[in-house]
Automatic annotation (TrEMBL):
Protein name: Plasmolipin
InterPro entries the UniProt entry points to: MAL, Marvel, MARVEL-CKLF_proteins
The encoding gene: Pllp
Subunit structure: Forms oligomers.
Main location: membrane
Organism: Mohoua ochrocephala
Top-level taxonomic group: Eukaryota
Signal peptide extent: none
Keywords: Cell membrane, Membrane, Transmembrane, Transmembrane helix
Localisation: Apical cell membrane; Myelin membrane
Membrane topology recorded in Swiss-Prot or TrEMBL: Multi-pass membrane protein
Length: 158
């Protein structure tokens, strides 16, 4: 096979922009939590797991699309895989956001832990929203919505 080629247009696409935002926001979430004494609170272990797990997977998907590996491995239903991934990430980020926000204690004896945990809650919420938007766009791509009239007519009658 041929070597992977960088797809610069992917970076300017909505999918590329959302994945880039998810990578940056996810990095903020887990690094803010990691900078606290999260190991003393079980709730933050869950937030750390969700944010780090989806950060790594988002980077893998980002590289896959950036190098156009999705076209090389065309037998994988990428729109469906991406839709399921984004939906699961959205649901688990909802739980991580609620857990993180509920565990923030304003009377924390370490002010910097409070600030970092509160910021992590905010960024977990924003990350959750970006995954939700990605789920919407992934669903539309999977269903073929947003394509031209000729394409949609062919898929409607198939």
């Amino acid at each position: 096979g041929s070597p992977p080629v960088l797809d610069g247009s992917f970076l300017l696409s909505p999918l590329g922009g959302l994945m880039g935002a998810q990578a940056v926001l996810g990095l903020l979430v887990w690094s803010l939590i990691a900078a606290t004494t999260y190991h003393l609170h079980a709730a933050y272990g869950w937030v750390m797991f969700v944010s780090l797990f989806f950060w790594i997977l988002t980077l893998l998907f980002f590289v896959t699309y950036l190098l156009q590996l999705d076209q090389k491995y065309y037998m994988i239903p990428w729109p469906l895989v991406l839709m399921i991934y984004n939906a699961v990430a959205t649901v688990l980020y909802i739980t991580a956001f609620v857990t993180c926000a509920a565990a923030v204690q304003p009377t924390s004896w370490r002010q910097w832990d409070y600030n970092r945990r509160a910021a992590a809650s905010f960024f977990a919420c924003v990350t959750m929203i970006t995954y939700g938007v990605s789920t919407f766009f992934s669903f539309r791509a999977w269903k073929g919505l947003g394509s031209n009239a000729a394409t949609s007519q062919v898929t409607d009658h198939a």
